[in-house]
Model the fold of this input.
Amino acid sequence: MAGILLKNIELNGSQSDILIEGNSISDVAPAGKITVKDADVETVDCTGKAAVPGFVNMHTHAGMSMMRGVGEDIAFHEWLDRIWKVEEKLDEDLVYQSTRLACLEMIKTGTTTFNDHYWYMPMAYKAATEMGLRSVLAYVICDRNDPEESERQKIQCQQMYEVSRAWGDTATFCIAIHAIYSVREEMMVWATRFARERGLKIHIHVSETRKEIEDCKAQHGGMSPVEYLDSLGILGPDVVAAHTLWLSEKDVEILGKRGVNCVHNVNSNLKLASGYRFLYNELRDAGANICLGTDGCASSNNLDMLETMKTSAMIQKAWRDDPTAMPLPEIMSMATANAGKALGLNIGRIEKGALADILIVDTENYSFLSPASFEANLIYSAHSDSIDSVICNGRFVMRGRVVPGEQQILADARKALVKLL
Amino acid sequence: MAGILLKNIELNGSQSDILIEGNSISDVAPAGKITVKDADVETVDCTGKAAVPGFVNMHTHAGMSMMRGVGEDIAFHEWLDRIWKVEEKLDEDLVYQSTRLACLEMIKTGTTTFNDHYWYMPMAYKAATEMGLRSVLAYVICDRNDPEESERQKIQCQQMYEVSRAWGDTATFCIAIHAIYSVREEMMVWATRFARERGLKIHIHVSETRKEIEDCKAQHGGMSPVEYLDSLGILGPDVVAAHTLWLSEKDVEILGKRGVNCVHNVNSNLKLASGYRFLYNELRDAGANICLGTDGCASSNNLDMLETMKTSAMIQKAWRDDPTAMPLPEIMSMATANAGKALGLNIGRIEKGALADILIVDTENYSFLSPASFEANLIYSAHSDSIDSVICNGRFVMRGRVVPGEQQILADARKALVKLL
Done:
């Protein structure tokens, strides 16, 4: 079977060998312990490099990558109006080009799986699979209170689900419910039932802004968005709730009890001034599974998970007035193993049997010349340009920072951008 | 005269030519308007690139670059105790190697001038000048309440000042007063007088932690550190005050009235959980001159000004609940022109007559493929690896991301690190 043997690579502080066969990790052993004679297995000497699981961006809108800068230094609801205006010009090609550009950025910054929430899903599928990334692609339910639109989306959702059944092993179909303020109640319930009957994950924006909380309370008899969603039976361990930023004690308890996967999108929340007091400790202790996302780069303004990891930890320490908050091992899990758990995919760990999504990090530059641990240097000191190579599903998607076809992707995106503006 | 002609480079949104002769910018004109026949002038085609002034890191401890990770996820005063323990092992070679390593990192991340605050200044001078960076190097007064140490430092300060008079044009001597909690009052007054008699800048840590405020009030009849320093006549436009994080309304008024240069060190403040509510709007409106620093990378954990710029803006928007706070042009000025003003150096602007400290930024990568402005893309989207080349004092210190001697610097630093540990 075709494979890759990574020799002499630092893994969790030890020199190791990692054998990849097909799309999975078939062996992990101390350096020098694995020898392979199969001519189909390429041996790569990784001296001076370290392995980490590929990052998982648990909430993004890849198709928005050409919309960064559409609104700078403005507030969430003003920003959303502007985005919805630009999106009127969207077409298949724009989503394809934007998602391809987003995949390029994700590869260069070490993301191997992205949990996407956007329009024209077949185009996102095409871009992600061409680029070799693992994706979870949502059919987005967003009827904006129009019953006719609901019916149209129900039909399209079913069609897309059927289409997705022919997808390869790197893409997973899921259902997105945009948000409680943009989807009719009956439609949210329909979408949840549709997902649960088919074992699909549900991806939803929850409690992102104070306005969302206030509006919800006014419309739903004083219930918060979390209470309201729970009253409809929507919350569960199959739900990925993006943002969960404005939460009451009761909300935290519900999200914990239901085992919801909460995604912190720190840069988007900061930049749109949505808020910064993400209740990390409380949610973790209540039993929620916490992951990280960049949000779409129209709001954040990039797809860089390392930046998200550092900033999340920095803010958490600062606002809690506690320098021990969100320690390094937990940040790393949020970007990797916790996401694997949330998506029900065997990713986020480098161990025998796991899918082979691996970052090869160059540790011979100034960022790593310190007494700190590899994790501290990677997250607090380095940037994504220390990521030398990226393996996704057992295949190199970047080697020595070269992504095949990069110049063509940029050239095509430049042409598409002209059309958007 | 030896020179460099940067052709077809984007500057403030227009295609331009920039002529550098000697260490200064001798002409800036629309693209195609400058032609030079002098064989000593090298013409560089900068199509697809943009020019920004070199960043100025207004508060750092370059000699600490090998101490990053000495204390992770701990609080300021515990961290400081640990640092002071490690520093007992410091010697000239360690400071030389650490500063050289810091200069390498600063060049790669676009800093052309650093305002340093550390020990063994002649070694910092040697490292900075060898690496071709502009530096403001402080003799650090820090007697830790020991009158004998004060006398020793007075003599050494005078000696160092004499030594500095033979320095070349890229290094400036200044006086650092460590902080009110580590320097005797009489010594602070002596140092201030010493500086003012010679026209030297004064660099001091001010109001970094709540503990500093509380201790000061207890010891000095209820005065805050700012009030206390002002009562001693220390504050003025020649003072660079690092941190200024915990300020009363009266403190803001004093800092403004005295025209103090306040340096925000966001990552250090966040990581040590010192605080995050930097009073940017209030200080600016009161008349203070606000700059940015990374602090030493033992606390921050890197020397990356672009990261500092983005994080400063993000936090400011979030805690003020105002997405328009700290807009892009102001962030850029804080990292460039404001610093030139603070240091009394003709840097931080790309214009005729200014010193030639210029970053050449590659705008043909994914970070810049958007409808946003160049500044938005550079600060919010890109990382320092988009900085292709760096000119300091009219000379290339990095070209195409290659810094001469990089591998030797890393090898030497690795040896020195073993000694430190």
